[in-house]
Design goal:
- Helix 8 runs parallel beside helix 12.
- By secondary structure, the chain is an alpha/beta fold.
- The model has no long low-confidence stretch (mean pLDDT about 95).
- It has helices at about 15-20, 35-40, 80-90, 90-100, 140-150, 175-185, 205-215, 235-245, 255-260, 265-270, 275-280, 290-300, and strands at about 5-10, 25-30, 45-50, 65, 110-115, 125-130, 160-165, 165-170, 195-200, 200, 220-225, 230, 275.
- The longest helix has 14 residues, at about 140-150.
- It has 12 helices and 13 strands.
- Bound molecules: NADP nicotinamide-adenine-dinucleotide phosphate.
- NADP nicotinamide-adenine-dinucleotide phosphate binds near residues 10, 13, 114, 116 and 165.
- Belongs to the NAD(P)-dependent epimerase/dehydratase family. SDR39U1 subfamily.
- InterPro entries: DUF1731, Epimerase_deHydtase, NAD(P)-bd_dom_sf, SDR39U1.
- This is Epimerase family protein.
């Protein structure tokens, strides 16, 4: 059987570090090929320099595409410039990618394209599956436009899966890399009232869901990538404190985080009781369905 080649954008990042080693053969796009080659984990078989005028050889044979690139939303203050980069590194870049894929002599069968639970805004206590409408705010608009660029491929017969990713928990990156040192020093604490629901997913399950989405022809459209048991921020705080064997007694007030982080702080206080409706219906089997199980894998005892 011939090798299955996957083109991965943003494969040098946190999620890509877990996904790429599980794929058969990969072509990774990156803004810095030399840095990507040196980076442990980004073990692509072939690298393509990413730029706004990326050209992919039309004879390239690609069976699937995973689109993960995007300027981090959690690093740095949300200035107007930063917000422009958040938008264009997802929307303009996905447009460039799709334009190139459409020029291939042989199109891939499937593209799994990242989106985020930020699309849902702040629905409070409501249980949110993939049918919930998008929010009318900055992140909601970014996600809708990002998904629409990816969906242009669906108009040309390519199966498009839009994975609406929750807060990804795992070793070596994402939210845990920021939170664990604080909790280990006894400085962790709930955010505000702590009542807000947090849609989390273990990075092994996110990588697992992406592979599952590539392999399952019946999966298309929006798919919530979050664990079946979202928790309130206060529950997550207590679970992390317990896992590291420390108390978490210092709540972080909203005004302080707004001063430190700018508009991004609002997303930390949004309540998103997201459930993986499509993954449950189509039979994805989670490795970590409870926060305790996820933390057990992540935190060294
Ligand atoms: N981690 C989470 O909790 C989370 C939650 C919701 C959604 N997501 C989404 O899932 C995807 C992967 O997340 P991740 O945590 O793996 O992200 P990450 O670690 O920040 O990696 C993203 C990759 O995108 C590329 N990139 C960054 N800025 C770019 C820009 N301005 N233009 C083009 N490429 C750029 C980088 O690759 P090069 O430097 O090699 O070019 C980087 O390695 C992202 O789209 C993110 O929005 C993640």
């Amino acid at each position: 059987m011939s090798e299955h080649t996957t083109l991965v954008t943003g494969g040098t990042g946190f999620v890509g570090g877990y996904l790429v080693p599980k794929l058969d053969r990969t072509i990774l796009t990156t803004r810095d090929v030399e840095r990507a080659k040196k980076k442990a984990g980004a073990d692509g078989d072939e690298f393509l320099e990413w730029s706004d005028d990326l050209k992919i050889d039309p004879t390239t044979k690609i069976e699937s595409v995973v689109n993960l690139m995007g300027e981090s939303i959690a690093e740095g203050r949300w200035t107007d410039e930063k917000k422009k980069r958040i938008r264009s590194s997802r929307i303009d870049s996905t447009r460039t990618l799709v334009d190139q894929i459409l020029k291939l002599e042989q199109r891939p069968k499937v593209m799994v394209s990242a989106s985020a639970v930020g699309i849902y805004g702040d629905p409070g206590e409501v249980i949110v599956d993939e049918t919930y409408p998008p929010a009318d705010n900055f992140l909601g608009d970014v996600c809708v436009d990002w998904e629409n660029e990816a969906l242009r491929l669906a108009e040309h017969g390519v199966r498009v899966v839009l994975i609406r990713i929750g807060i990804v928990l795992g070793r070596g990156g994402g939210a845990m890399e920021k939170m664990l040192p604080l909790f280990k020093m006894g400085l962790g604490g709930r955010l505000g009232s702590g009542k807000q629901w947090v849609p989390w997913i273990h990075v092994d399950d996110l990588a697992g869901m992406i592979l599952w989405a590539i392999e399952n022809d019946s999966v298309s459209g929006p798919v919530n990538a979050s664990a079946p048991n979202p928790v309130r921020n206060s529950e997550m705080t207590q679970a992390i404190a317990k896992a590291v064997g420390r108390f978490a007694i210092l709540p972080a007030p909203k005004f302080a985080l707004r001063i430190a982080l700018g508009e991004f702080a609002n997303s930390l206080f949004s309540s998103q009781r997201v459930v993986p409706g499509v993954a449950n219906e189509k039979g994805y089997s989670f490795q970590h369905s409870t926060i305790e199980s996820a933390l057990d894998e992540i935190v060294d005892k």
